[in-house]
């Protein structure tokens, strides 16, 4: 998933060969075209070969970027030669853009170190980064200090950087709907609304009675109820779900959809139990699953920072996320664990999805009041896991992330379930417990921990622990 537009600035310096800039333009365009990414760059006629060397060049490039500020999600700094260190920093500063920046530099060839063909971009990149640092501009680096655009690794670097840009842009101004009070027994999902707001994330609250009241006012035979029942049964097999439960699910689904649209929400966190079952007579899991599948992540138990994590991972990977419990050991294997929830994971995780009930809740609330939970097993796939949490005691946002895999190991139980294999799982559990993280974690079928670390740690200044690095 590569969408969006980059601002591209080519560095140049008067005593280095100019023709290198022209070649770089063609090579970088080819990479961006291959990835399906748009770009904004000076024309070759605007400045010397379309590079930035003087302050006047920087002004011209900055004005171009300003004109496209709503489109540009990130900036590529390309150094075909040493480049003008001030020109790069001035371009970004004058543009007024607050977006991620990736700095690339070309390698030299050992047989081309004469005056007419040498680049010295290895050294120039250090100088450019030094200036960006002085100007307070945050930036990303390629894994290799110097790399050619026609190197296959550069295409991966740009694709990953595009994902970083999606996370940063998507998280800024994010709006989360917190519907209902957190369950009384779940202090673990407490969070700081003020810390989130300071980081540009708005929480829109609603009492659950408002949602249930609106749902109860819809007549059973209303056209919208029939439409939503059709959408629900097209999404998942109904199994043994009674007609009256489908009607209740449909009403609730419609009202939630209205609420999301009315408040322009990017994600929701719902009071999924026990008020819903006692006062409305069904589970909301299916609706939550449908929202998550449609890239509007929804977390249970009013886990606001849980759904925030789901959204971040979704932005990084381009695929749905799921909120899960770190639930059980897997026999005696120290690096395997059972991931579980009553039944609200996105369909992407559940190929054999079926609407069912929630036996654990049903034991105290009556199984007949818990229809709407989903049943399904997640098959083997790549795994990125993690958690964003507000730490009120220290006034900060902290994160842990890592990668592993979901396996096809035998697992005989109900609900939404998966088996995960994670290197040094015991060490991870030590970290989670010692640092006061929640029992909820988020999973995504991808390998995006590095992208999340860069986006959340570098561009948001959140405290990030990457378990893969130890």
UniProtKB/TrEMBL annotation:
Keywords: Carbohydrate metabolism, Isomerase. Residues 339-465 form the L-fucose isomerase C-terminal domain. One of its GO terms (biological process) is fucose metabolic process. The lineage of its organism: Bacteria, Pseudomonadati, Bacteroidota, Sphingobacteriia, Sphingobacteriales. SUPFAM superfamilies: FucI/AraA N-terminal and middle domains (SSF53743). This is Fucose isomerase. InterPro entries: Fuc_isomerase_C, Fucose_isomerase_N/cen_sf. Signal peptide: none annotated. GO terms for molecular function: L-fucose isomerase activity. GO terms for cellular component: cytoplasm.
């Amino acid at each position: 998933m590569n969408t969006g537009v980059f601002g591209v600035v080519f560095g140049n310096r008067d005593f280095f060969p100019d023709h290198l800039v022209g070649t770089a333009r063609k090579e970088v365009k080819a990479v961006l075209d291959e990835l399906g990414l748009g770009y904004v760059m000076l024309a070759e006629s605007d400045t010397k070969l379309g590079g930035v060397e003087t302050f006047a060049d920087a002004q011209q490039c900055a004005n171009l970027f300003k004109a496209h500020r709503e489109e540009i999600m990130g900036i590529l700094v390309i150094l075909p030669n040493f480049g003008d260190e001030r020109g790069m920093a001035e371009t970004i500063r004058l543009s007024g853009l607050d977006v991620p920046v990736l700095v690339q530099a070309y390698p030299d060839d050992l047989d081309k170190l004469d005056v007419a063909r040498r680049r010295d971009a290895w050294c120039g990149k250090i100088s450019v980064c030094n200036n960006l640092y002085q100007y307070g501009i945050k930036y990303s680096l390629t894994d290799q200090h110097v790399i050619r655009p026609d190197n296959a690794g550069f295409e991966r670097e740009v694709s990953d950087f595009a994902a970083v840009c999606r996370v940063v842009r998507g998280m800024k101004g994010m709006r989360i709907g917190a519907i209902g009070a957190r369950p009384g027994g779940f202090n673990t999902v407490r969070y700081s609304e003020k810390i989130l707001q300071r980081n540009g994330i708005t929480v829109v609250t609603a009492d659950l009675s408002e949602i249930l009241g609106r749902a109860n006012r819809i007549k059973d035979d209303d056209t919208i109820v029939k439409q939503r029942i059709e959408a629900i049964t097209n999404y998942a097999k109904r199994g043994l779900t009674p007609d009256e439960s489908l009607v209740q699910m449909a009403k609730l689904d419609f009202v939630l959809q209205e609420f999301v649209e009315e408040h322009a929400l990017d994600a929701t966190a719902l009071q999924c139990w026990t008020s819903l079952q006692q006062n409305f007579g069904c589970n909301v899991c299916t609706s939550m699953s449908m929202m998550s599948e449609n890239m509007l992540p929804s977390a249970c138990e009013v886990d606001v920072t849980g759904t925030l994590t789901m959204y971040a991972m979704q932005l990084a990977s381009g695929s749905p996320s799921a909120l899960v419990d770190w639930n059980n050991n897997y026999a005696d294997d120290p690096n395997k664990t059972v991931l579980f929830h009553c039944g609200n994971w996105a369909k992407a995780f559940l190929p054999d999805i079926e609407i069912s009930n929630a036996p654990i809740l049903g034991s105290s609330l009556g199984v007949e009041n818990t229809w709407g939970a989903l049943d399904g097993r997640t098959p083997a796939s790549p795994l990125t896991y993690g958690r964003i949490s507000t730490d009120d005691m220290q006034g900060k946002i902290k994160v842990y992330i890592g990668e592993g895999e979901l396996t096809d190991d035998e697992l005989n139980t109900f609900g939404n379930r998966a088996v995960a294999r994670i290197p040094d799982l015991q060490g991870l559990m030590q970290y989670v417990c010692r640092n006061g993280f929640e029992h909820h974690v988020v999973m995504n079928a991808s390998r995006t921990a590095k992208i999340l670390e860069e986006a959340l740690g570098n561009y948001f200044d959140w405290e990030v622990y990457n378990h893969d690095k130890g």
